[in-house]
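Ticket #4471: structure output looks truncated?

Reporter: J.K.
Steps to reproduce: submitted the chain below (124 residues) through the standard prediction queue, then opened the result file.
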Amino acid sequence: MFADDFNREIVLSSQVELLEFIKERPAFNANHFGFTFSENGFPQLTIFVKDDYCVFYFLGEGESYVSLNNNTTEWGVEIFYENEKGTQVELAKECVLNAETMIEVAIQFFVTRSRPICIEWMEL
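Returned output as attached by the reporter:
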């Protein structure tokens, strides 16, 4: 699987490598991960992570989704980072999940090469 983050682009060949990769937080205790199985193709999984929060985006052939947190009572935006220079992106709090969910979501994507079913999604 092709992977990129704030600092690099690499090829991951095992779940162990994937789990080590998503631990990285090189700036602002944050990172922005991208995963795909072809250099410029679909499906794609994108993860914004900061502290204990994350937001997922899934792009497939003709489909786009963002993670959905039906348990939140907070509205507004949460600030995440696109790069280690501090470029900020505001993402809706209703899309923010606990960072612990990254492990299961990333592994499901790695194994199935499809949209993970362990979280809820909202179609874009």
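Triage note (M.O.): checked the attachment and the full token line is present. Strands lie at 2-4, 9-11, 30-36, 44-50, 53-60, 63-68, 77-81, 88-92, 97-98, 120-123.
Status: closed, working as intended.
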